[in-house]
Amino acid sequence: MTLDSQQPRSSSATLFGANRRKLIPITLALVAAAGVAGGTFYFTGNDKTPTTDRVSTNAVPPTNATPSAAPVVAQKTPEMPAITANSGRQPVAMTAPVEGGGAAIQPATPSAAPSTTNLATTLAMTQADPVGARLALTRLLDRRELNAAEEFSAMTSLRELNAKLFFSPAMSVSDPFIRVYTVQPGDTLSKVAKKNDVQTDWRIIQRMNGMKSEKSLRVGQKIKLPVGAFHAEVSKSNYQMKIYAGEGPSRVLIAIFPVGLGELNSTPTGAFMVRPKSKLINPEWNNPRTGEHFASDDPKNPIGERWIGLIGVEAHNQGFKGYGIHGTVDPASIGKQASMGCVRMSDADVELVYEFLTEPNSTIVIAP
User: Does 342 qualify as catalytic in the annotation?
Assistant: First the structure.
């Protein structure tokens, strides 16, 4: 049961990434997230998400107190080495550099990935047609017809493709999920995001272009911008969150993260959106069970550095209140049932998810 007191309180502070447009009707299909062999996969950009504009709010999201009941631990196959941040390293150039920007990927004309494409054929596409290979690999995984070893191979290839296609300054002329922008006088990343209708937080632009700070912008520089909205699917059975770019048969899998879930299977299922004005950076928190208050900068704050409130959009979950996606100070709880129903993540992972998911663009599907 969720308490009304768990709802984040409103704040007059600036909330980045909040889109104030009216919600529009969206048709949502519940898709159970496929289990992925190989454990944790990170397709991340920079180590440290910029937090120059920290928002201190009076947020009261749900608690993450560990219950006395024995947690359920996800069964994992051997760990896949994680792709972490660039940490200032130069990305591998794929061809000659683009003037003022990253390297340009010049693949063969991308092929539409037919549903009959097998894994071996798809893996053979990765060098000549990385954009087409990413789409084909996503379709193969979405069909959930691969065995454990094949899934591991597919995810390994996807991880490598996304590290180049999305999480680096390299630019592919055929990638439908990026566009190239030339920096103008007076531009900042937040201004660039606004005037180009970028449907993510502006920090994604900094991350995918390998910038150490917003001050790295130069007039005339070519940078890449994300195109369209990003969506999340959470699989409770696998303790995983998948992030997709786009929707329908053209969507592509961008990242997978391990998550922790609600004690006693209390995390609600169904389709959700980001609750209006609920995205918080460095939130304060009051424990509704004990009344204990945690200040925004308290290192013991159980919900970490990010809070993304959720609102149900189906008849059976519209009444749920106080649920969200957030960080944790207890990394050992990831992969277990240990919260009051929220989806919890490591602080580094939830920073990236915070950048991807925006209101009212993103949908979040939580499947059994």
Answer: yes
Residue type, 51: T
Q: Cα(161)–Cα(313) distance, rounded to whole angstroms?
A: 33
Top pLDDT among 307 and 83 is at 307
pLDDT tens digit sequence for 100-124: 344 444 443 444 444 445 899 999 9
Q: Does 326 qualify as catalytic in the annotation?
A: yes
Last residue of a domain, one of 226, 245, 263: 226
Tell me, yes or no, whether 181 and 129 share the same domain.
no
Indicate whether 125 and 221 sit together in one domain: no
Candidate list 231, 293, 316, 342, residue with the active-site label: 342
Q: What is the pTM of this model?
A: 0.73
Report the distance separating Cα 217 and Cα 201, nearest Å. Answer: 17
92 and 192 together in one domain: no
Name the one residue in this structure whose structure tokens are 């993510």.
200
Contacts of 213 (CB under 8 A, 6+ apart): 50, 206
274 burial (CB, 10 Å; 0-12 / 13-18 / 19+) is buried
Which one of the listed residues 231, 293, 316, 326 is annotated catalytic? 326
Asked whether residue 251 falls in the same domain as residue 313, the answer is: yes
Q: Are residues 135 and 251 in the same domain?
A: yes
Q: What pLDDT band is residue 319 in, cutting at 50, 70 and 90?
A: confident
Give the pLDDT band (50/70/90) at residue 52: very low
N residues, the chain: 368
Q: Which residues of 23-52 are buried (b: 16+ CB within 10 A; e: fewer)?
A: eeeeebeeebbbbbbbbbbbbbbbeebbee
Q: Are residues 347 and 201 in the same domain?
A: no
Residue 48 CA, chain-centre distance (Å), reads 15
pLDDT band at 322 (very low <50, low <70, confident <90, very high): confident
Q: What residues make up the domain containing 358?
A: 4-169+229-367
Residue 31 has pLDDT above 80, yes or no: no
**Could you tell me the CATH number of the domain that includes residue 211?**
3.10.350.10
Question: Is there a single domain that holds both residue 9 and residue 150?
Answer: yes
CATH of the domain at 79: 2.40.440.10
Same domain, 322 and 213: no
Q: How far apart are CA 321 and CA 86, in angstroms?
A: 38
CB atoms within 10 A of CB 335: 22
